[in-house]
Design goal:
Helix 6 crosses helix 7. By secondary structure, this protein is an alpha+beta fold. Strands 3-2-4-1-10-9-11 form a 7-stranded antiparallel β-sheet. It has a 6-stranded antiparallel β-sheet with strand order 5-6-7-8-12-13, with helices on one face. It has a domain of 174 residues: Aminohydrolase, N-terminal nucleophile (Ntn) domain (Glutamine Phosphoribosylpyrophosphate, subunit 1, domain 1, 4-Layer Sandwich), CATH 3.60.20.10. The mean pLDDT is 94. It contains 7 helices and 13 strands. Strand 9 and strand 10 form a beta hairpin. It is an enzyme of class 3 (hydrolase). Catalyzes the hydrolysis of the gamma-glutamyl amide bond of hercynyl-gamma-L-glutamyl-L-cysteine sulfoxide to produce hercynylcysteine sulfoxide, a step in the biosynthesis pathway of ergothioneine.
Length: 251
């Protein structure tokens, strides 16, 4: 379920990455090539981007399919950014949260997306939720698994964890509490991207010093795309990409 992409590179219209490529996120909403779970991502979408000189990203999210929103087409045509995170959503269960349930979730400089599903939701993660401060649970953006996973990660970021460590520890805890979960996570502050491959596909394209793209699947047929092995943490900047195996929780 779901497809997402994060990009760091030269400033260009959002459409250059999200609409124009032959297999862009826009097309992946109805015709993904590598999606293992679900087929149509029509239960909401969102894009967050960073304007030059402003560390806090803007967001545009809707509860419906990306192809049915003419406002997005106009926005993507004229808004330029050198860093973004966007996602199209295939919901796991019915929800009344509307666009609040659509990624990217945000706080301060951070944008976050979850491609996957937590098994046994919500009961499986009740112990992890109970360990969070009450105000953080009450401030959840939506009542779905992705919003709680984001709360777990944000709690670690606020405590001083690096983005990679925050993702790795959250995956370890959630996978331990809910075995069989799919936890492909994507996090950016506009300068770096951290991501996990855990149960679904993840790819990256790196043009050293110029561009780094991390996505559920390639948006074109450039031969430089590389697939990330399952159970791997990726951290990318425009300068380099680092891959680190993720620790498995006890069975």
């Amino acid at each position: 379920m779901c497809r997402h992409v994060a990009l760091l590179g030269p400033a260009e219209p959002l459409a250059a990455a999200l609409v124009a490529p032959p297999h862009a996120l826009y097309q992946q909403s109805w015709a993904p090539r590598h999606q293992r779970h679900g087929t149509v991502n029509a239960d909401g979408f969102g894009v967050g981007w960073y304007a030059e000189g402003d560390p806090v990203p803007a967001r545009y999210r809707r509860a419906g399919p990306i192809w049915a929103d003419p406002g997005f087409a106009d926005l993507a045509r004229v808004v330029r950014a050198g860093a973004l995170l966007a996602a199209v959503r295939d919901a796991t269960v019915p929800s009344a949260d509307g666009e609040a349930a659509a990624a990217p979730f945000a706080d301060g400089p951070w944008l976050f997306s979850h491609n996957g599903a937590v098994t046994g939701w919500p009961h499986s993660l009740a112990p992890l939720a109970a360990a969070l401060p009450a105000d953080e649970v009450l401030s959840l953006a939506a009542r779905n698994d992705s919003a709680l996973v984001w709360a777990l990660i944000l709690h670690r970021l606020r405590a001083g964890d690096t983005p990679g460590q925050a993702l790795a520890d959250a995956v370890y805890d959630v996978a331990g509490a809910a075995p069989g979960s799919r936890l492909n996570l994507l996090l950016t502050d506009g300068a770096a991207v951290a991501a996990t491959a855990w149960g679904d596909t993840l790819w990256y394209l790196h043009d050293q010093g110029r561009r780094a793209v991390v996505a559920s699947e390639p948006y074109d047929d450039d031969p430089r795309w590389q697939e990330v092995p399952d159970r791997t943490l990726l951290v990318a900047t425009r300068a380099d990409v680092t891959l680190t195996p993720l620790k498995e929780p006890p069975s």
